[in-house]
Amino acid sequence: MEYLGEMSALASAALWVVTGLAFAAAGRKVGATVVNVTRIWLALICLVVLHFALYGYVVPDLTISAWIWLSISGVLGLAIGDQFLYRSLVDAGPRTATLVMATVPGITAVIAWPVLGQSISLWGMVGMAVTLGGVLLVIGQQPRATGRVYSQMRRGVILAFLASICQSVGLVTSKMGMGDPGTADAVDPWTASLVRIAVATPFATAMLIATMRFMHDQWSSVKSIPRAWKPIVLGAICGPFLGVGTALVAVNYIDAGIAATLMATSPVMILPCAWLIEGEHFDPRALWGAAIAVLGVGILMAHLP
Asked: What is the pTM of this model?
């Protein structure tokens, strides 16, 4: 299907907007670590059922290399990286955390160039630059002093940046684990997603157990899960299940840097949601930034090889 990778990347961006808002709401009630572990178990169950329905088996037969790279990708991207991200959603808010994640395309492109040998055409770089320029224009515009107040903004921004590094490395290593489409050792995106989450789930659970030994309030957070089950379920379906799956479809069919650029349009998509749900208000510069980002996506998709 033409533009399958590009459309999957944009779908992933939209899904992660919903995920960010849902997990921010859940994290304020039960904490980031509890949200991280609960949603990854829910996503694992969904992926096991989907994979069995699609292929008739659960445990895939992959090469050792594929297992290694997909496992690294799962631990970095879904366990450690998402732990940073969900904490930043609580500390800095979904809008700011999503905006900081706009650094992912640049980091991904820098890593993918020497590691995967993926170069981008001149027009492709123009499209990426215009898209990211629009996103940065949105980032530079601060919301008015209305709506929800976040007291740990600096820590949240730092954690979001660490999450972007983990996500970038996770995208590149997932591409290395999936191989080239059509080859004998190629791994389809949904199988790769299952492997990543299956490996990340016990790792994230171990992180929760370890923190419970030192943070007594974690146990009370675990007991409070029923109070936040609706946003956790919504976020689990839209994020680590559908969001990760569509992201891997994108990485499988187009260059990692281009996929990351298209997925970085989440800051633009989240503007109306931040206004309606979080009560944040913006000046017209944010709308100009959104328009420029959309123009950049158009240039990028019009000049793909």
From this structure: 0.75
